[in-house]
Amino acid sequence: MRYKVPQNIDMQDRIIGSLTMVQFIYAIIGFGLCYSIFMTIPKPYSYFLLIPTAALTVAIVFIKVNERPFLNFMLSAIDFLSRPKKRVWHHQQTDNLKVIIYKAAKNQQYRQKQVSREQMEELASRLDTGEKNRTR
């Protein structure tokens, strides 16, 4: 029995002409905003908001930059312009650097263990060969 293998699964389906579902939703939202601007603001002033809104909507819906949607390009450009271009390392200023050094309590007693030369050599050979723990 043969099965059809879907091809071009990374391409979005076209629903109206050459518009995908996402492009169609952007167009509905953008031109709905243009319509509401046109109907609510008095006529000579509405054109100052209407023309840039319509142009941005057309750009988002139809224009692609380097085979990527214009919205991705616009968001990347805003991100690039809003971040600093230089990173400066201030060697002397360490105000935000917190270094915490833990010291042992004064009343804590440390016991010292005497290790013979043979035990040190055995430990070194076990570490060199990668052997597991042996019984002592």
Description:
- With 136 residues, the protein is mainly alpha-helical.
- The chain has a domain at 14-82.
- It is 49% helix and 7% strand.
- It has helices at residues 21-40, 43-62, 70-82, 117-129; strands at residues 14-16, 19-20, 64-65, 68-69.
- The protein is elongated, with a radius of gyration of 34 Å.
Q: Provide the succession of SSEs.
A: EEHHEEHH
Number of helices: 4
- What is the alpha-carbon Rg in Å? 34 Å
Low-confidence stretches: none
Distance between the termini: 67 Å
Biggest sheet: strands side by side, in what order? 1-2
Number of strands: 4
Structural class estimated from helices and strands: mainly alpha
Largest β-sheet summary: 2 strands, antiparallel
Instruction: Please state roughly what percent of the residues sit in beta strands, choosing from under 5%, 5-15%, 15-25%, 25-35%, 35-45% or over 45%.
Output: 5-15%
Please estimate the helix content.
40-55%
**Taking all residues together, what is the mean pLDDT?**
83
Sum up the overall morphology in one term. Answer: elongated
